[in-house]
Amino acid sequence: xxxQNLSLAGAATQFLAALSPEERERSQQELNRFIRWxxxxxxxxxxxxxxxxxxxxxxxxxSANAMERLEPVRAFLAYARKEGLTQTNLAVHLRLKKGTPxxxxxxxxxxxxxxxxxxxxxxxxxxLSTLKLERPKIAQELSRAAADKDFHENFPLEAAKDRxxxxxxxxxxxxxILKLAVVAAAELDAAxxxxxxxVILHDLSSGEELRYTLVHPKEVDIAKxxxxxxxxxxxxxxxxxxxxxxQVAAPAGMLRYxxxxxxxxx
Length: 266
What we know:
- With 266 residues, the protein is an alpha/beta fold.
- It has three domains: 3-93, DNA polymerase, domain 1, CATH 1.10.150; 114-183, Transcription elongation factor, GreA/GreB, N-terminal domain (Helix Hairpins, Orthogonal Bundle), CATH 1.10.287.180; 198-263, Chitinase A, domain 3 (Roll), CATH 3.10.50.30.
- Helices cover 45% and strands 15% of the residues.
- It has a five-stranded mixed sheet. Strands 1-2 form a two-stranded parallel ribbon.
- Helix 2 packs across helix 4.
- The protein is globular and about 65 Å long.
């Protein structure tokens, strides 16, 4: 769609123009941080759900008032969906964790492993490598911004510091995940649903066919049909077999799906 080719900066400008002067002043700083993080010229239609979720996690790890800081970004993403700039409301993925699970329950005990698909493990490794390559670039940006005595608040220096903080937090997170990661077996039993299985469902209400792959929460990518094994749908499907009907509680009511087919990971 034409609107989805609009840059993040262009979309943010439209959004801010629609606000009152007071709201604009409150929102601009955090929105500037958000669009700089993903690239001002990047088409807004290319923004993915997992990227928005990652942004929320980075804010959460670097700010005591994370909820307040995310509000302008959440409003912007809701606006983008309303105006047809994105296919889905990405604002729903901009949420904070209720609690951070501990990888070590007590001193001397083994760390909890993280089971990932082969594809997910490789994707996280590639993301880690890419972020590490960003370090020299960020250092140069910080050096240039610090040398410029004529910059406004929230602009080059602050943006570079924010981006550096986000990158370092994500690098630490990825290194921690990969250190504890165990790659799931390539061959899965197609007789029942397990982590890594791809499940074809028949929605008994709408007749629609749905295709989901069950993955660890760190691998979730809604745009690609990868849902968490910890989600309501994931929990309902685990260990079920072909032909079974499962029920999932949703805000709109109870959803009922029949498992048409189970495929192992590739």
